[in-house]
């Protein structure tokens, strides 16, 4: 039997990204959410936060 679906969402610190992360986590998905600074973000139950800024390439490489 397959495990939970895995979801990666960029920009979960606020707005649509945050709402989507909460919704997918409540639906039982394994959720990874990116934020620019994990120290400045309120945690979300069921979401693993990844510090990443999509603009500089080195940030993307570090996150992966």
Question: Would you give an account of this structure?
Answer:
This protein has 2 helices and 3 strands; from the N terminus they run E-H-E-E-H. With 64 residues, it is of the alpha/beta class. It has one domain (6-63). It has a 3-stranded parallel beta sheet with strand order 1-2-3, covered by helices on one side. The radius of gyration is 12 Å and the shape is globular.
- Order of SSEs: EHEEH
C-alpha geometry? globular
Poorly predicted runs of 5 or more residues: none
Spatial strand sequence of the major β-sheet: 1-2-3
Number of helices: 2
- Average predicted local confidence, pLDDT: 91
Helix/strand/pairing class, anyone?
alpha/beta
Q: Could you tell me the strand content as a percent range?
A: 25-35%
Question: How far do the termini sit from each other?
Answer: 27 Å
Number of strands: 3
Radius of gyration: 12 Å
Helix fraction by DSSP (H/I, runs of at least 4)? 25-40%
Number of domains: 1
- Biggest sheet architecture: 3 strands, parallel
Walk me through the topology:
Blueprint: E1 6-10, H1 15-26, E2 30-35, E3 47-51, H2 57-63
Parallel strand pairs: 1-2, 2-3
Pfam families: adh_short (PF00106)
InterPro entries: NAD(P)-bd_dom_sf (IPR036291), SDR_fam (IPR002347)
Protein name: Short-chain dehydrogenase/reductase SDR
Quick tags:
64 residues, alpha/beta, three-stranded parallel β-sheet, globular
């Amino acid at each position: 039997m397959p495990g939970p679906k895995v979801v990666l969402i960029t920009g979960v610190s606020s707005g649509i990204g945050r709402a989507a992360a909460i919704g997918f986590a409540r639906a039982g998905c394994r959720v990874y959410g990116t934020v620019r600074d994990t120290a400045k973000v309120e945690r979300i139950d069921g979401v693993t936060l990844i510090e990443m800024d999509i603009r500089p390439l080195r940030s993307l490489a570090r996150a992966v």
